[in-house]
Design goal:
The complex is a heterodimer of chains A (554) and B (315). Chain A is an alpha+beta fold and 554 residues long. Chain A is built from 18 helices and 26 strands. In chain A, the strands form seven sheets. Chain A has a seven-stranded mixed β-sheet. Chain A has a six-stranded mixed β-sheet with strand order 14-21-13-20-18-19, with helices on both faces. In chain A, strands 4-5-7-6 form a four-stranded antiparallel β-sheet, with helices on one face. The radius of gyration of chain B is 24 Å and the shape is flat. Classes of the chains: A alpha+beta (554), B mainly alpha (315). Chain A: It holds the Pfam family SBP_bac_5.
Chain lengths: 554, 315
Amino acid sequence: MYPTSRQQDAPLRRSARRAASIAAVLGACLALAGCAGTAAQGAGQEAGPAEPAPGGTLRFALGAAPQGVDPQQVGTNVSIYVARQLADSLTDQDPVTGRIEPWLAESWDISDDLTRFTFHLREGVTFSDGSDLTADDVKAGFDAIAGDLGATAPLAASYLAGYEGTEIADDHTLTVVFDAPNAQFLQATSTVSLAVLAQETAAVDPSERLQGEIVGSGPFVLESYTQDQGAVLTRRAGYDWAPASAAHDGEAYLDRIEFSVVPESGVRAGGLASDQFDAVGDVLPQDVPQIEGSGGTVLTRANPGVPFILQPNLTRPPLDDADVRRALLLAVDRTELVDTVLSDAFEPATGVLASTTPGYVDRSDRLAFDPDEAGRILGAAGWTPGADGIRVKDGEPLELEVTYAPVFTGSGPVLELVAQQLRAVGVDLRLRQVTAAEQTTAQQSGDYDLYYYNVTRADADILRTQFSTAQRNLSLREADDVVDPLLEEQLGERDADARAALVADAQDAILDDALAVPLFELSQSIGVRGDVHDVTFDASSRLLFHDAWIEQEG
Amino acid sequence: MAAYVLRRVGGAVGVLWAAFTVSYLILYLLPSDPVAIMLDQGAGGERVDPARVAELRERYGFDQGPVQQYLTLLGRALTGDLGTSISSGAPVAGLIADALPQTAQLAGLALVLGLAGGTAIAGLASWTRAAWLRDLLLLLPPLGVAVPGFWVGLVLLHLFSFTWFVFPAVGNEGFSALVLPAVTLAVGLSAVVAQVLAQGLREAWRAPYVEVAFAKGAGRGRVLAAHVARNGSLPTVTVLGVLVGNLLGGTVVVETVFSRQGFGRLVENAVTTQDIPVVQGLVVVAAAVFVTTSLLADLAHPLLDPRVTTARGAR
């Protein structure tokens, strides 16, 4: 159903589209700074259509099946592509500045101790069922997440850790109360996980919510959802509360968005090039030429949060030796990873946070490729080169195993190259590929040397939830008096500059102890046809379609 | 005849029960926890509260002992309740009911195409007197078995969807979306049919009644259609029962390549997320399909060869 509705007229339209798209791609290249040549300048901007036009259906091919469409319960990127369009959040995080801006809440006050957050809601906002959006809806949603719904909404529940309740002053004023300082909460209110749904939705069974029994106030409304197959969204009539970061106010331009699940990347790219899709997700490096060759463009943005890292299990010798871990930091040539097995869309990691994360500090100097120094550190720690080139200490070879699930398809090739690089300094890195399910099991039992993963979050508090010994702590390390206190203190720091300083210290402290070996930043990579414009990324690098529009012929 | 059918149906019930039990044992013995897997997916890398995991395990009955869990599941299955999916919360029976018609269409068309193709190859090879043509035709089956369905699907897509837009690349809507996936599935099927049928026909040509028929003055085509085909196709009918079951397995690959909703996609997703209720429901349904098709194949034998019925009926 989804991709076929416009197929009948497709061949006739293709030549007209191609002409328009050649002009459009020139303009897009300027914006991406991907085309260094000067020939395209000027011509591209003039030839492109000046005004966004309402109407049309955008056919989007997702790389994987969404878990469901409930904004509060889903966590995977593809699920959020769909769910984000259906509901709005209290606040909006500006993707450029990282600052928290008004959305459903016009303003807010935060108590000095960061335990009470008072939001003043915008008036005149309605849900898609016509009812008014009030403080009761916000409270019902938070109460549910902190209660029963939290079991199947782990991401939202983690943002509301320490939730005591929501006090309602009037229809448009509410105060969220925590039992401890919670600096990350304000950013959390901008995420899809804490999006505001109608209070009736809070009472619906969680699995029915995932299947589509939700009412939101977003720029699109769910028309249908079929598990493993796709979803159809239609424009919400009367939508008039877009955040300031949106390019326009009022209703979305697109009439409809038809999401379909297309697991094969080659089929997505071929479908885009043959006008069976208007936009596709998860573009792989090998598919970029086909997309660009057909007049399309590939949009990318690095996911904020923790980039792809190897996290050492400190209970597993020789990773209990900090020198071994420090040597690993210097033995990886991150530029080579990106240049040889990934693509222009990806950036080498330059710290324990991705560059798009507010509070990120560039520590590329500490992660510079220096195999000689890595070898010297290992030698000084007693690891001497053995007969086969692998270092040995007390008769034990320097062997490590990385456990990874190839959820991101480039992971295997990246890790193979890392293994080659480490071998050059005398470390034998073995790859243990597992399914996502097996990785969860390995994680729970602590059965890994190095754990390979990334996490998306546009707030530096992600460092605490990943590295604090009271939290996920994949290093399985003991509590300390350097890293842990820094991670806890930033959560209670009201002053933005002071919090940033603590976060910067925490990033250094994690590198001092080499608790993570950063590799590269994950990027969202979206292919769009030449006649599709203004598909945008939010601060968490998930897609927004409110501003998106398709050139209409005639 | 009635006793024979009854006996076979009884056997079928036994097979279904065994499929249910063995799949339960395998899934139960796996070290991983489907609830933790599901939550980890939704958590997007954030830490999952162990108390939440325990709460959900209780909700799904995973906190009970293995025997009690088994009996609960079996009891529910007997009343037709296959439970709900752990990862999506949707009823398993509904998921399968949505998927099965799609796959039935796909497998049905693939079966028709595969039978037609396989019969044409074997029949032509059997009928022709030109040795070069026969040799050429008999090269096709091994080739058809050797090329992976995945590759066939991608080549078909590239030619007939991306290069010349004849058929849509993805989706479930309409007959046009069914053609390429069905052809992909039919390639392997027709290869097996052609191979087995050609072998059966070759042997049937050597039977004495063929000489009798020729002696009576029948032409080559008439002998093939009236005598050789009927006897030579018996092994094919037997194999066909198994092939139909194998088609279900083939849909895992084909439905993924062509982004179709159906049984194969459901299997793939349920296995990767270790969604025990869904996997068990699928195993039971697949076993039922296997049992039914091989029963039908056996029942078809007497229609082709009356000797089969008398032999069995006399027992």
